[in-house]
Amino acid sequence: MDSGVGTILRQARNRRKVELSEVEAATRIRLRYLRAIEDEEWDVLPGGFYTRGFIRTYAAFLGLDGERLADDYRGSVERWHRAPAEQAQAGSGGAPRRRSGVPLAALVVVAVVAVAVIAIVAIPSGGDGDEGGGGEVDAPAPAKTGKATAGKAEPSSSPAPQSGVSVELAANAEVWVCMLNGGGRALVDGLILEAGGEEGPFHSGSFTVSFGNGEVTMLIDGREAEIPETSSPIGYAINSSGKLTELDEAERPTCA
């Protein structure tokens, strides 16, 4: 699959004359993952949220637009997964239909005949006498009212926008996590996430969260939060506008 993401990152790194080992030390992304990103060997990477986080971090280190490159990666992976199914459909379904299907001209003729039959059946139902015809002409009015009612109902069928803030987590290495929503309910109940583990997205008016260390990527409304590289426990409060406030040890949730 040729998404161009890996090529862009490799060229930017080479222009800056930076070795992959330097990138690994600065971003804490393993060397084999950095190589896989540059070579676009996506099956080597954990995938999904985790890989997009790697791309954003690597791109930011090089001064590139990490969000755009992460979106390019996502679109390329979706096309990559669709391609085998589309090829299989073209190989198994296309040829037999051309060999044994009804010619297009014949289908057109059938369609024209069907329309003519419908027109013939419809004319007598609305044209038996002036008074009868007048009554039938008024009949479509309820259908128009029904369509209008259906049209008004459409907006209510769409999902209402969720209020508050959205939070997603991905473990860069093994990390203990406790996360509570604004009502104090445990969303991540003191779990140890392995490297590549993901939780969320969660939606709430606010959150409190504790991490056993800084080996975690946290997205707040799609934007990566700044979490220090630390081996010590750390905790945060997140308000409804997405603002991140570090908590003292006594204020951090424990999920005990």
What does this structure look like?
With 256 residues, this protein is α+β, with helices and mostly antiparallel strands. The protein is 49% helix and 19% strand. Among the domains are: 5-77, lambda repressor-like DNA-binding domains (434 Repressor (Amino-terminal Domain), Orthogonal Bundle), CATH 1.10.260; 165-251, Immunoglobulin-like, CATH 2.60.40. The protein has eight helices and nine strands. The protein has a five-stranded antiparallel beta sheet with strand order 3-2-5-8-9, with no helix packed on it. The protein has a four-stranded antiparallel beta sheet with strand order 4-1-6-7, covered by helices on one side. The protein starts with a helix and ends in a 10-residue tail after the last strand.
